[in-house]
What we know:
The chain is mainly α. It is rod-shaped. It is 69% helix and 0% strand.
Amino acid sequence: MEEKRSKIWxxxxxxxxxxxxxxxxxxxxxxxxxxxxxxxxxxxxxND
Length: 48
């Protein structure tokens, strides 16, 4: 009985992990997340 419960909780955990991963990927695509968006803007120095 205990082994059956363990398998059920493992399956539930994996299902939640997959759902969170899909949610995270969907939000990342929706927000148009990229490496450039995570870096602060670099100001150009004007040395003429």
